[in-house]
Amino acid sequence: MAITTNIVSAGASGCPDVPQRKPSAESAVAALSPQARLAVEGLINRLFREIRNARPAWRQAWATNEALASAKVTWLLAFIEAGINDWDRQIEYGLKGLRADPSDFVPSPGKFIGWCRPTAESLGLQSPERAYQEACRNAHPSARASAVWSHPVTYHAAIDVGLDVLMQLSGVETWKLFDRSYSVMVQRAVEGQELGEAVALGLGHDSQKTEAERAEEYSLQHALLVREAQGISLSGQPAREALLSRLGIRRMEGVNA
Q1: Contacts for 213-220 with beta carbons within 8 Å, 24 or more apart?
Q2: Is the full-model pTM beyond 0.70?
């Protein structure tokens, strides 16, 4: 286990002035069980075989066995620090980028790590503009029952914003809301996270509330979405009072609505 042993024995002495705000790569390796260290060693050796197969000029970077061994330590440290720890989901993307890149030379660890993070396009996702157009089409009441969604990311972004909201607000306002939600959902997909349930609008559904109370909550939520899309602050009592005033709703102390 030369690679992981070298990391543990070297420690962080090479960078004494760098503050350690999170556990170092060295301590992360030191915490591995013997079986895990062996697995890490195998993965790094496998990765370097793939790199050498794809890069005919690899000897210019690793001219000696010592240089190769040192590079393996450097790459493993870079992977740990960047959170690259999933061969199937991350490193395979990196290898695809490596094979697609026309260079004959070995990339830097940082460049390879960049390839390990898939883009929306590499996942087959639409541009935000095309996804927005699809969401608006499918949000129409006559289209909802038979709507066909090109990707779960587009669907979840549309539901996050709200199909009714997409129909009721202006295009400028709904685009801002959708673009934000789509960005969040794309990032979740890129990171391999579950898209999960759409973010609730926060409307009340208490059966004990009157129709007027539920209508007021919906109106307030609708106005909040408008203000958010327009970049207006949503925090604090002044914002709520402004919304109530805009909606023509008066609040009087000591008087029940």
Answers
A1: 213/257, 216/247, 216/249, 219/247, 220/244, 220/247
A2: no
